[in-house]
Amino acid sequence: MQLDLSPEATYTFLLILVRASSMLVSSPLLSHRGIPAQAKIGFAVFTALVLAPITKLPGGQAPDTLGRLVDDVLREALFGLGLGLSMNMVVIGLQMASRIIGLQVGFGLGAVFDPITGTEFGVFDQFYSLLVTLVFFAINGHHLVIQSLAETLQAVPPGTFDPFSLSPSGITSLVAGLTVTAIRIAMPVMAALLLTDVGMGIVARTVPQVQILIVGAPVKIGVGVLVLAAALPVTMQLMNGVFGASLAGSSRVLLGGAP
């Protein structure tokens, strides 16, 4: 195999490397602070090496001015960040369900600071974070990320991205759909805790001697954990479907296609 080191091929590799590196900054899970920087750089370089030979440079020539070089690099950086962010919305939408459940059960006050992510997390936040990570790699989500990047190279060749061509309606529909999915995931626990609150209210009215504030907290935690365990198979199916559809279609959403 002969290695092509022409200016056009080198410039194509550079633009793809910028797009892949920018995507890794905001992509789901792959941008985690726990992943070493060397691994991220190696992943971006390997992806660029694989995609560069099958990507055509618009115009067929490398730039002859510094202004065009800077312009193309900035376009690729913006597009990579936008692509990674659109895919990361999928994970954020799924983790939203953990916040809803944690607040309803009563674990919201027990949140602690996570030095890796730089945010606060509760018991259910950590559980759902691990669950989302397992589902992501179980369905080869990292392959879907690379597939989305390869699709964008065909739809938007390197150096041709127009920031004003983004589709606000597509991104809005994606966020709305993920919010509905988060509510669907949290709905079994929310419904069970609502019935529990109604039952505790009836007990408080009929048996005033019972200290509802003391008894209610462990009861709600027990009911929440039991319902969460019972609904776990359905939750896994929902996460699987959301990852498979939304990650693969994130590039179309960003470019204005159907989600």
UniProtKB/TrEMBL annotation:
Keywords: Bacterial flagellum, Cell membrane, Cell projection, Cilium, Flagellum, Membrane, Transmembrane, Transmembrane helix. It comes from the Bacteria. Coiled coil: none annotated. It is found in: Cell membrane; Bacterial flagellum basal body. Its main location: membrane. InterPro entries: FliR (IPR006303), T3SS_IM_R (IPR002010). It is a multi-pass membrane protein. The keyword NADP does not apply. The chain crosses the membrane at residues 12-30, 37-57, 77-94, 127-150, 170-198, 210-232. NCBIfam families: fliR. Role in flagellar biosynthesis. Belongs to the FliR/MopE/SpaR family. This is Flagellar biosynthetic protein FliR. The lineage of its organism: Bacteria, Bacillati, Chloroflexota, Tepidiformia, Tepidiformales.
